[in-house]
Design brief:
Elements lengths: L1 E6 L9 H13 L4 E8 L3 E2 L4 E2 L5 E5 L2 E6 L3 E3 L2 E3 L3 H12 L3 E6 L2 H8 L7 E6 L7 H6 L1 H10 L2 E4 L2 H6 L10 E3 L13 H13 L4 E6 L8 H8 L6 E6 L5 H7 L6 E5 L3 H10 L2 E3 L11 H8 L4 E4 L6 H4 L6 E4 L4 H13 L1 H18 L2 H13 L2
Parallel strand pairs: 1-2, 1-9, 2-6, 9-10, 10-11, 11-12, 13-14, 13-16, 14-15, 16-17, 17-18
Antiparallel strand pairs: 3-4, 5-6, 7-8
Helix pairs in contact: 1-15, 3-5, 7-10, 8-13, 11-14
């Protein structure tokens, strides 16, 4: 029997791209003849019912999968710091004896632990989500560690060929890389008659206006400041809904304060997310750096047949998910005038927008669905 240890930075109810990938991967493998465990750092997070506290260490089960959340005493440059993590990891290695470790990078502190673990009696699968680009000091500090980790890995997973070719690290280890695009969970995007009614009501309340929608955490690489600046080039025939929240929310709201056609939704429920996907005419995905390695929200909007406007991000999977001139329009990075012009073009050419939307839906159905991901992951693990 294969025993897999998943190493993630955090887990639900903390919600981020990496955490969703881990959750989906565990779900895809749950019915196989495989034992799975997860170790991660704990973090303050809540879904309204389930509450996690950063400084507490917990062992819990979801189904038959144990999750070990290691309590932390602080953070440095987005890296959680824990006194108990290493001892918990050692216990797992001794008692669980995983023959496969799937390590989700970046997570530099844990990378150091793995590299100092001298018993190489497991296969190391390195799931490379993105290069460290924001924290320049941290990036330099762990530069050599990255190559040691890539050297140690038996296999490296990337979510797109764009990222392999654009990463200064991965392009040197192409022979170890496999491409496994992440997927959207269509089960979480179910459309009910009530949701359709609410989406229709929203559209009718904004009759004759072009509805744009952007969604994501309000952090620098998501590029919402550029989206807002782009929208300042549009008249009141356009309305923009921005979902999500984060450290930049207040700053973004201040930036948009004199523009009533820019509406902040805050943290939205799953139902509200679907309503806005259905109601919008154009999905505005404004990420600007390679920290955005794929773009799950982008794929979700495309699933609902929405044309996308994106920035060109060399080496990012964003421009692999949405194809310029096929599923949407790709603009020069950070060029807010070009971004506004792309929105106007789609608004004024309904035939083109519908064509891109149809192509977008088909691209997601053919490449980025859970069933495809599940089959790929099962085959991948069985062949290790």
């Amino acid at each position: 029997m294969k025993k897999i240890l998943h190493i993630s930075k955090y887990m639900y109810p903390f919600i981020g791209g990496i955490e969703l990938v881990v959750q989906t991967m565990v779900s895809a493998l749950k019915d196989e003849n495989i034992k799975q465990k997860i170790i991660c750092f704990n973090e303050d997070a809540s879904d309204g019912n389930y509450v996690c506290k950063r400084n507490v260490t917990t062992h819990e089960y979801i189904g038959d999968v144990e999750i070990i959340r290691c309590g932390c005493f602080g953070k440095f440059a987005s890296q959680s710091l824990s006194l108990i993590y290493y001892s918990e990891l050692k216990k797992l290695m001794k008692n669980f004896k995983p023959n496969i470790i799937i390590f989700h990078y970046p997570n530099p502190l844990v990378a150091a632990y793995l590299l100092h673990y001298k018993k190489h009696d497991f296969k190391l699968v390195l799931f490379w989500h993105f290069d460290i680009t924001k924290q320049k000091i941290l990036g330099k500090l762990f530069y050599n560690q990255n190559f040691a980790l890539l050297e140690r890995a038996n296999v490296i997973i990337s979510t797109s060929p764009n990222y392999v070719n654009g990463s200064p690290f991965l392009q040197k280890y192409k022979e170890k890389c496999v491409i496994i695009p992440v997927c959207i969970e269509d089960s979480s995007l179910e459309v009910t008659s009530e949701i359709i009614k609410k989406a229709d009501n929203l559209k009718n309340s904004l009759k004759n206006k072009t509805i744009c929608f952007g969604l994501g955490r309000h952090i620098p690489y998501k590029g919402f400041s550029y989206l807002i600046e782009a929208f300042k080039n549009l008249d009141d025939n356009f309305v923009l809904f921005i979902g999500g929240q984060g450290p930049l929310t207040k700053e973004l709201m201040q930036q948009a304060k004199n523009y009533p056609n820019i509406v902040f939704l805050g943290k939205i429920s799953n139902e509200e997310r679907i309503i806005h996907y259905l109601a919008c005419d154009i999905f505005c995905f404004s990420s600007v750096t390679k920290n955005e390695a794929f773009g799950l929200a982008l794929a979700e909007a495309m699933y609902f047949g929405k044309p996308a406007v994106t920035f060109n991000i060399p080496g990012s999977g964003v421009n692999y998910v949405s194809l310029n001139g096929i599923t949407g329009i790709e603009c020069k990075n950070r060029d807010v005038k070009a971004y506004a012009d792309a929105i106007k073009k789609l608004a004024n050419d309904k035939k083109l927008a519908n064509e891109y939307g149809t192509n977008a839906k088909n691209r997601v159905l053919e490449n980025f669905m859970f069933d495809t991901f599940k089959k790929t992951i099962i085959d991948f693990v069985n062949n290790l």
